[in-house]
Amino acid sequence: MFLPDFYWPLIGFLILAGFGSACEYSPGICGAWADGDIRIGVLSSCHSKVQTLNVRERPEKYNCTQLNLISLVRTLAVVHTIETINNSSFLPGVRLGYYICDTCSDASKAIQSTEQLLAVNGTLPVQCEVLERPNVKAIIGARFSEDSLAVARLLSLYMVPQISTTSSAQTLSDRVRYPAFLRTMPSDVHQTKALVHFMKHFHWDWVGVVYGDDDYGKNALQSFLADSEAADICHAFKEVLPHYLAHNEIDKRIQEVAETIRLSVAKVVVLILKEELVSKLFKEMIRQNTSRTWIASDAWSMSRNISQMEGINQVGDVFGFTFITGPNPGFKEFLQQLTLTPGSVNLFLEEYKQLGKDAGFLTEAVDISMTYGERLAVWSIAHALKHLLNCNETDCPGERDFPPWKLLKELKKINFTMENQTFYFNASGNFMNGYDLINWQPQEASDLPNCLPCENDTWSLKGWTSCKPKEEDYWKWDGSHAIVLLTFTAIGYLLLLFTLIILLVFYGKPVMKQAGGTLCFVMMVGLALSYTSVILFIGKPNVHICRGRQILYALGFSLTVSCILVKALRTFVSFLPRYRQEQAKRFYKPPVIITCGTLIQVLICILWLIFDSPAVEAFQSDQSMIITVQCNEGSGIGFGIMLCYIALLAFVCFLMAFKGRKVPQAFNETGHIILSMLIYLFVWVCFTPVYIAKVNERYSIQAAAILMSCYGVIFCHFAPKWYMALCKKKLQLPAQNLSIRQEQEGEGIPLCIIDVRMPVSGYS
User: Fold this and answer.
1) Which of 295, 236, 240, 242 is nearest to 263 (CA)?
2) What is the residue range of 509's domain?
3) Rounded to a whole number, what is the largest CA-CA distance in the chain?
4) Mean pLDDT throughout 117-140?
5) What is the C-alpha to C-alpha distance for residues 314 and 291, in angstroms, rounded to an integer?
6) Does any domain span residue 249?
7) Which DSSP string do the residues of 108-176 spell out, in sequence order?
8) Residue 330: CB partners within 8 Å, gap ≥ 6?
9) Mean pLDDT of 70-94
10) Cα 396 to Cα 98, 389, 412, 460, distances in angstroms
11) At a CB cut-off of 8 Å and minimum separation 6, what does 696 contact?
12) Residue 156 near residue 181, CB atoms below 8 Å
């Protein structure tokens, strides 16, 4: 009689049971647990393989490696559903607990983990009497049919209900050999029939098959061969791969199978394999640049790891079937937080956190809709418990330490509705909830007659395969433009501070009076406002920034030029003929001139804000993924009038200074006024055509123009006073050589009679 290899350890265990007494059993703790009134066991392949299994010589501890995120998420779905039930009033007064043990994707390890779940107070009776009240009352799992087949034999001995959410091997429907096994999906007998109908529909009658050497692969292969032959579908080849991932020959076999597929004329290949084997095979097919039509079994048809692997679009079309999926309310938020109830332990979760992945990674790496089976399994147990414990609205008075066979009896009778669909176990212990047909879509929008539209404010460029949000472009605070502007602005502020210190130190002295007296302080205020306007060119603009930066410059520089106008007018009037000076004195009112010069600009700005206010605008192009966010000065009329008014003041200053350029040097600032106003006029004349042409860099040029204008005023009007105050020696000229009568100083009009009999180059 033929028996699979994995049965022999179990037979040895049962033989030992016939000759021995109760033995202590300590295989190690499970990987996650939470205590409760009634405990549910979970067998999960949280790790994908056991190391050095092929050289194992004695019953030593299994060394499990390669954390499997899909199994981890399925396990967490069980935990979340149990906590959801505990936080509801579905089982009043009853708290569900759980123990989660790892099978490590190995049947022998699965048996060991099952023994741990069944053990009572650390021991497992091995005498002939039946284990009536094990630690857990039901077990959810295992993931792979190979493991479930081994576990189902052991659990059938004690009639502990086992509910698998993914093991689809047809033989598990045998009620004689596996009377305690249930599952929340159909068996492979229905899946292989569906695959054959699908291939027949497309007239694919020449196909290849690759399967695993585990019980799942062998059973599914036999079912598929029988159904396909009945439908006149021929098999080009049948290749087998080792189920054990650490097998010494696995890489060699992968290459051999890939070569068989490449050389075969069959264009359709059925893969009855676990996810990890398909991933290895596809990597080899990509390397060989081989494309086929692939038919996926339920074991990998929804694998995100495979669908997102590099070069997957080169392998060809992928079709398959998956079990009906559905929602799991609150589970996504649970994964994003990954916080467990107090008193619970989850070593698998701790191992995941050590990988350095954020909590939200699991929701992207795994399709959480696949955990619908785990949700159904837990709720199936909950509905059976509700009947077994005689629960009403306030209490569940039934016995809680019941033998598991009573729960199994109730499970076979459940009939409940979820998401408008009815669920129950049929006579074979299966949910008959059907399949979804899967077709993997390649990432490239390339053989379509028209481009697919992007949604939710996303765009894509020609040749792109996905939609992305556009990036906003403006002067970031850490950008090169911003750093340069801020540097020169900071230098400007420092120069103003230095000037302020000089003027305060020499306040009341000739240098201060010749510089313009208190007029200098007003000029510095205007320059400070102008420098501040430059800062508002940096950062993401809004309507207030767009208005503020232009208004600050307009008022600040108008105030500065109005003060320069007073200085130019003073020099011009001072050296008029005496009879004309008396007439001009009536119009020389510095406070009035400065106030009127600035108020006119205030009026211009108010009208500008009312009728043609600056605003924010965003430019985007179909040929760029950049949205340029910038200020718009309206129609430009108000902006132009503002600049023209300052230019008019500057031009008047220039004319008056030019008229008085022959004034004796000791009282002459006309050269400084002429140079500063020429700098201003030249800079802004250059800016005008750039602005009118709407060049993209016009705002950086405007900011630079403001800085140059301010620096021109500082170096033409204040720098000479620094020199005179700090560096130049004061010389006393003989009184008989120079006669000066100054009637007014400072802000007044100096009326002078000069009689120069020697060169005055040394006079200061």
Assistant:
1) 236
2) 480-730
3) 141
4) 74
5) 6
6) yes
7) HHHHHHHHHHH-BTTEE--SSS---S-S-SEEE--SSHHHHHHHHHHHHHHT--EEESS---GGGG-TT
8) 80, 84
9) 95
10) 19, 5, 20, 59
11) 628
12) yes
Under 8 Å CB-to-CB from 723, ≥6 apart: which residues?
Answer: none
Q: Is the predicted pLDDT of residue 622 greater than 70, yes or no?
A: no
Report the alpha-carbon distance of residue 45 to residue 104 in Å, rounded: 5
The answer to whether position 462 is within a domain reads no
14 has pLDDT over 70: no
Kindly tell me if the per-residue pLDDT of 515 is higher than 80.
no
Q: Are 452 and 518 in contact (CB under 8 A)?
A: no
- Here the CATH number for the domain that contains residue 572 is 1.20.1070.10
Q: Is pLDDT of 447 > 80?
A: no
Question: For residues 681 and 704, what is the distance between their CA atoms, to the nearest angstrom?
Answer: 14
Phi and psi at 107, nearest 5°, equal -65, -40
Q: Do 670 and 602 belong to one domain?
A: yes
One domain for residues 113 and 195: no
Q: Do 608 and 576 fall into the same domain?
A: yes
Which residues make Cβ contacts (< 8 Å) with residue 436, sequence separation at least 6?
321, 322, 323, 324, 325
Q: What is the CATH number of the domain that holds 267?
A: 3.40.50.2300
The verdict on 545 and 680 lying in the same domain is yes
In this structure, the answer to whether residues 110 and 249 fall within a common structural domain is: no
Q: Identify the burial level of 242 via C-beta atoms within 10 angstroms of its C-beta, where 0-12 means exposed, 13-18 middle and 19 or more buried.
A: middle
Q: How many CA atoms lie within 13 A of 112 on its CB side?
A: 18
Is 471 within a domain?
no
628 and 678 part of one domain: yes
Q: Is residue 425 part of a domain?
A: no
- Identify which of 358, 349, 359, 369 has the alpha carbon closest to the alpha carbon of residue 67: 349
Residue whose entry in the numeric block shows the structure tokens 């020499």? 506
What is the average per-residue pLDDT within 234-259?
Answer: 92
Cα–Cα–Cα angle for 217, 11, 27, rounded to 5 degrees = 90
Question: What is the C-alpha separation between 589 and 599, in angstroms, rounded?
Answer: 15
Indicate the helix (H) or strand (E) that contains 617. Answer: strand 615-620
CA distances from 467 to 206, 308, 445, 464, 732 (A): 39, 17, 10, 8, 80
133 & 65 share domain: yes
Non-local (6+) Cβ contacts of 312 within 8 A are 282, 286, 306
**For the whole model, what pTM was predicted?**
0.56
Q: How many domains does the chain have?
A: 3
Q: What are the tokens at 421?
A: 């669909």
Cα separation values, 302 from 105, 357, 361, Å: 19, 22, 17
Helix (H) or strand (E) holding 97: strand 96-102
Q: Which residues contact 497 (CB under 8 A, 6 or more apart)?
A: none
Report the percentage of the chain scoring pLDDT > 90: 38
